[in-house]
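Researcher: Sequence recovery benchmark, item below. Answer with residues only.
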């Protein structure tokens, strides 16, 4: 049988090139390189137990079979998840397009203008519909966004409230259950007390700092919250509103009746339900709170030539800079989903969205009127899309359920506050007259009656005039230009050309692992068998998902050397947080709640200290040695000094400095001897898989970035997935969920809205592991280490200084090289080098992290030797350009490095006043001419953008 191994499609260098690369690296074999890189004391004695590797064809057949096990019933369950019509032009050109899903977070603005504009559009839509003043460019999900709002309100307490110790948050009873679940988790470390009740009867007290309500309420009721908002503000507190973004197309925006913060999900804007995720959440607020808003904000600025440009604004408030003082540990969010949701709004425009919202609402009106004819009592007379019915005498919820399932319909079943059963439903944009009559028939037949046919008209409403918005919104030209598929396709293509992605060239970001996201792994993402499943359907309808979840958890546990796994955390930082909360609960179960100290190396990712603070721990920073290792004696001293209160330590391995520290087992033993638990940050698992494991090293729990090591794409800043794996003693505390049985027997409350997080992305990692197997996974890791050492050896021959190495002179899967000498001798910074690389068509490496004045490079195993050599050539040319400054051949202030990147507008202008030729700026090497990437804007002015903060697309259309 003629089959090819997936391994050799995933790995870049060809077999015949490996010996040549080993020779450049200075070793004779892969075994010799690994022996010099990975300490023998932590090497696995046997490979992880994974199934035999499948070919691409075999995996495709298997995932087809798994998908077929999911039953696509029409779900009208609602509760934050709704079926949608994803425009094919967006699915085809964004979700299925590697130019969009393989791009990195837009920290390098000059080569990210397309994504930045798409996300700016998203922000504009959110602000237009909520009526608020500033928003971010997405969060993880509605429940965690509500938790972020809670923490914002807590941080924004007045001096008087802080002094009095105000620590109570009012949570209305009609907030979604999964949101309440996450609020419980996130409130505990801050000592926030959740107070539940009915907003209409709740009386403010001095201990209350904030309140949160649902709009419309979970039971569907459209409420008038203005009086309640006034009461909250009179008490000196703030009001957060969880709002359905589609309902805001019709309903009075929360800003008009007193909301301070508005959160919600944009899943209804064309994003499949996907058994719970991913879909982008939003958080919008008042501009006065801009320093407290979590996540990333897109802002408008100018470039070096004075042209408008986009960038990430106000970055100094984020966790990668503020560390433990950050207001949030948000890192990866849901940028790709936000992009799609923004395009959905652009494609439909205001009129299209109004048509959809009216359709949804009118369907609910028809159903409410018709179902009541059969003896069911509607529980709320004012609604947008969600209905709740009390049952006629003699009719049971089970009878309704049975009839619904016969017709392959899922409805919502619940118990009201008085203990009586209720049956409900939520309409969506897909509903039609046939489905309306099928739903009516369910209720009629359950009541022993025959349904009469109903007609469906879109122009129906039961809303009072004061409930309907009457302001102007979405008036920007953007929302009027792209309503034909041709126009929309060209607009998306226009933005696509402004970005560097893996479809363009290597993205050598240290600690971010921008590897191949294989097409066969990505294909299932747009299949309805995965997309059309509501997260709260009966288990029997999601057998395919359940198999994939079970097998993925088993494979991830095997790779990490652990026994327990939870897929619920929906980002890397969320995985860190979930891990620390599991550790916290473990100590509490043993009567050791006083253990509240976390040791964190000085070199740690910014999310580590931020996460530790969010989880309620007091952090103590451990020093690094001159060689970049954790200072063992400092670690030991601080662990022993805090042994009575030590909760644990957070360690990244291989280290953030890119090396395998030989003291790691000793560090684990120190933590355990002093009563703590060791969390291993899995950001660098691409250097571990198959060679060692967190369990082998001595860790107790770890998180994994599936969007790094395990082949999920970065999506321009998300979605990320951050599952956690743990040892047996921590498994009972893995996250649970209020709506679906998952997690340990004593699991912490939920850390995400969905039981399994961003689970519709799981086919990617499932495929990656299934097609590699244990041997393949090990070889992938070895190739990642070889590619890194090949670059490191080549860089050193060019005179670049690799800052940190292991005891035998090797780097791990990434390296840091020092640019400070160039600044001292020639005035050229690491930023100048980063910008000049754009002229060669490369995205910059990780800039000034974790050491200022450095570049961190990680080539991954997927980059071909040809691309690595181009990157080396580019750096050699840049090195020569730097030396020209020393010889006087180039001007010290007006040179290709200081002026980089060079745009097509600059290079084609009539005037050229620089001392170097245009050709040197545009085509520094011959191969650049063959595939030139043109940066859309020149070097952006960060300070200008922060001083003049604009966060909507309207400014792009001003003269």
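Model:
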């Amino acid at each position: 049988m003629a089959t090819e191994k997936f391994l050799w499609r995933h790995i870049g260098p060809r077999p015949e090139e490996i010996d040549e690369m080993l020779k450049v690296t200075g070793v004779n074999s892969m075994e010799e390189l690994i022996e010099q890189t990975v300490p023998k004391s932590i090497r696995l004695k046997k490979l992880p137990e994974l199934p035999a590797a499948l070919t691409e064809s075999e995996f495709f057949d298997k995932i087809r079979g798994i998908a077929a096990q999911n039953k696509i019933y029409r779900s009208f369950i609602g509760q934050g998840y709704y079926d949608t019509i994803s425009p094919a032009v967006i699915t085809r050109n964004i979700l299925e397009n590697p130019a969009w899903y393989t791009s990195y977070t837009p920290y390098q603005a000059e080569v990210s203008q397309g994504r930045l504009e798409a996300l700016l559009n998203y922000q504009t839509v959110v602000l237009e519909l909520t009526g608020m003043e500033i928003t971010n460019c997405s969060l993880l999900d509605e429940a965690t966004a509500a938790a972020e709002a809670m923490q914002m309100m807590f941080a924004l307490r007045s001096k008087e409230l802080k002094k009095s110790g105000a620590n109570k948050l009012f949570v209305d009873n009609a907030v979604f259950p999964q949101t309440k679940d996450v609020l419980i988790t996130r409130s505990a470390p801050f000592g926030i007390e959740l107070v539940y009740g009915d907003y209409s009867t709740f009386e403010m007290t001095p201990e209350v700092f904030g309140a949160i309500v649902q709009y419309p309420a979970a039971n569907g009721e459209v409420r008038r919250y203005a009086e309640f908002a006034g009461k909250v503000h009179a008490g000196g507190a703030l009001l957060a509103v969880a709002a359905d973004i589609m309902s805001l197309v019709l309903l009075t925006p929360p800003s008009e009746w007193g909301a301070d913060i508005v959160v919600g999900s944009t899943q209804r804007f064309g994003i499949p339900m996907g058994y719970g995720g991913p879909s982008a959440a939003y958080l919008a607020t008042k501009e006065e709170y801009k320093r407290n808003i979590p996540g990333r904000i897109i802002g408008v600025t100018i470039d070096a030539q004075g042209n408008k440009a986009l960038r990430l604004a106000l970055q100094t408030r984020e966790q990668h800079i503020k560390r433990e003082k950050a207001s949030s540990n948000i890192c990866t969010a849901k940028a790709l989903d936000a992009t799609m949701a923004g395009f959905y709004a652009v494609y439909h425009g205001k009129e299209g969205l109004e048509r959809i919202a009216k359709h949804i609402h009118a369907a609910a009106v028809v159903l409410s009127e018709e179902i009541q004819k059969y003896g069911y009592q509607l529980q709320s007379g004012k609604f947008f899309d969600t209905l709740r019915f009390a049952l006629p005498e003699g009719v049971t919820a089970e009878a309704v359920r049975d009839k619904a399932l016969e017709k392959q319909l899922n409805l919502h079943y619940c118990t009201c506050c008085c203990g009586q059963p209720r049956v409900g439903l939520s309409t969506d944009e897909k509903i039609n007259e046939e489905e309306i009559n099928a739903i009516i028939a369910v209720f009629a037949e359950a009541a022993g009656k025959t349904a009469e046919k109903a007609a469906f008209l879109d122009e129906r409403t039961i809303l009072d005039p004061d409930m309907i918005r009457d302001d102007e919104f979405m008036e920007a030209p953007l929302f009027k230009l792209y309503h034909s598929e041709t126009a929309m396709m060209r607009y998306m293509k226009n933005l696509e050309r402004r970005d560097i992605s893996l479809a363009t060239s290597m993205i050598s970001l240290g600690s971010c692992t921008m590897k191949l996201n294989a097409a066969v792994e990505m294909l299932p993402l747009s299949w309805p068998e995965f997309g059309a499943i509501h997260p709260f359907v009966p288990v029997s309808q999601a057998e395919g998902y359940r198999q994939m979840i079970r097998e993925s958890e088993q494979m991830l546990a095997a790779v990490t050397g652990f026994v327990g796994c939870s897929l619920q955390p929906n980002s890397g930082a969320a995985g860190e947080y979930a891990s620390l909360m599991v550790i916290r609960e473990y100590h509490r179960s043993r009567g050791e709640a006083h253990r509240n100290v976390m040791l964190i190396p000085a070199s740690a990712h910014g999310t580590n200290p931020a996460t530790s603070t969010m989880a309620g721990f007091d952090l103590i920073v451990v020093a690094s040695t001159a060689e970049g290792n954790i200072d063992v004696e400092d670690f030991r001293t601080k662990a022993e000094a805090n042994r009575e209160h030590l909760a644990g330590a957070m360690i990244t391995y291989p280290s953030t400095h890119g090396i395998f520290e030989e003291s790691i087992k000793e560090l684990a033993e120190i933590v355990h001897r002093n009563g703590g638990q060791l969390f291993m940050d899995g950001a660098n698992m691409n250097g571990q898989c198959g060679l060692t494991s967190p369990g082998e090293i001595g860790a107790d729990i770890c998180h994994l970035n599936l969007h790094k090591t395990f082949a999920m794409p970065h999506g321009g800043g998300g979605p990320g997935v951050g599952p956690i794996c743990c040892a047996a003693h921590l498994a009972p505390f893995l996250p649970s969920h209020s709506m679906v049985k998952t997690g340990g027997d004593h699991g912490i409350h939920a850390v995400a809205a969905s039981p399994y997080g961003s689970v519709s992305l799981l086919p990617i990692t499932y495929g990656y592991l299934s097609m590699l197997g244990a041997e393949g996974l090990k070889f992938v890791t070895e190739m990642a280490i070889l590619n890194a050492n090949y670059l490191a050896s080549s860089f050193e021959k060019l005179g670049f200084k690799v800052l940190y190495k292991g005891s035998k002179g090797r780097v791990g899967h990434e390296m840091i090289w020092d640019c400070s000498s160039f600044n001292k001798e020639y005035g050229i910074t690491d930023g100048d080098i980063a910008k000049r690389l754009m002229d060669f068509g490369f995205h910059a490496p990780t800039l000034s992290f974790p050491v200022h004045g450095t570049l961190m490079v990680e080539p991954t195993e997927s980059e071909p030797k040809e691309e690595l050599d181009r990157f080396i050539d580019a750096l050699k040319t840049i090195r020569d350009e730097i030396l020209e400054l020393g010889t006087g051949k180039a001007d010290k202030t007006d040179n290709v490095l200081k002026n980089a990147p060079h745009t097509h507008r600059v290079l084609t202008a009539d005037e050229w006043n620089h001392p170097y030729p245009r050709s040197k700026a545009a085509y520094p090497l011959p191969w650049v001419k063959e595939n030139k990437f043109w940066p859309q804007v020149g070097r952006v002015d960060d300070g200008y953008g922060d001083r003049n903060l604009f966060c909507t697309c309207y400014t792009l259309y001003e003269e």
